[in-house]
Design brief:
CATH architecture: 3-Layer(aba) Sandwich
Protein name: Multimeric flavodoxin WrbA
Mean pLDDT: 94
InterPro entries: Flavoprotein-like_sf (IPR029039), FMN_Rdtase-like_dom (IPR005025), ISF_SsuE-like (IPR051796)
Helix content: 25-40%
Shape: globular
Pfam family, one: FMN_red
CATH class: Alpha Beta
Keywords: Flavoprotein, FMN
Low-confidence stretches: 197-201
Oligomer: single chain
CATH superfamily: Flavodoxin domain
Number of strands: 8
Strand content: 15-25%
Number of helices: 6
Order of helices and strands: EHEHEEHHEHEHEE
Length: about 200
């Protein structure tokens, strides 16, 4: 199985990085064919809305994402980990997601078949204590990302209060939360860890 694992934090050894690493470890995915993307280490532009991808089925910008598009298209699974900044995904994550406009144009403007169907996993962490709308902004962004990258089924994991309870292997509540997850490739599921309680919705 080809996996694209994306870390969307601007910091090293962050909750976002740990979330991704522990998820891969917990579900025995580290032995798969994995491509890791650490977005802060890449040099790429935000989408400039030039609509070049409305004329040809590719992004006409030339940067580090040029070689990433084929990996996205060939992947069987995409795992995207991001922190919450101002009620949405991080800025580097949003710039990356905006560049997926090429797949929206492919389907709706060029009328070409969608790219290969895959399974999507969104790992979202917020430093603040849980509120009902804490993850709404990031979920809306990911909803479009999952659709254009052909992730028909997907899993969303949300963890709050990471300022007080950092994500790491010693966080027993987080590990119990991971162990409660049913990784079902034929379904759409969402789980949230609120403070020290865990469950799904």
């Amino acid at each position: 199985m080809k996996i694209l694992a994306i870390a969307g934090s601007s910091r090293k050894n962050s909750n976002t990085d740990n979330f991704l690493d522990l998820f891969l470890e917990n579900f025995n995915l580290k032995n798969e064919d994995i491509t890791y993307l650490t977005l802060k280490d890449l040099d790429y532009s935000y989408c400039i809305s030039c609509y070049g991808c409305a004329k040809v089925p590719r992004c006409i910008l030339k940067d580090d994402l040029t070689d990433i598009y084929p990996i996205i298209e060939e992947s069987d699974m995409i795992i995207f980990s991001t922190p919450i900044y101002f009620n949405s995904v991080s800025s580097i994550s949003k710039s990356f997601i905006d560049r997926m406009q090429v797949y929206w144009s492919r389907k709706f403007l060029l009328k070409l078949p969608p790219i290969k169907e895959k399974f999507g996993i969104c790992l979202i962490n917020g430093g603040a204590k849980y509120t009902e709308e804490q993850f709404l902004g990031s979920e809306l962004v990911f909803d479009h990302f999952l659709k254009v990258t052909s992730c028909k089924n997907h899993l969303t994991l949300k963890v709050s209060n990471t300022d007080e309870n950092p994500i790491n292997s010693e966080n027993e509540d987080f590990i119990r939360f991971l162990n409660s997850i049913n990784l079902d490739f034929n379904a759409r599921k969402s789980y949230v860890l609120k403070e020290k309680n865990y469950g799904n919705k």
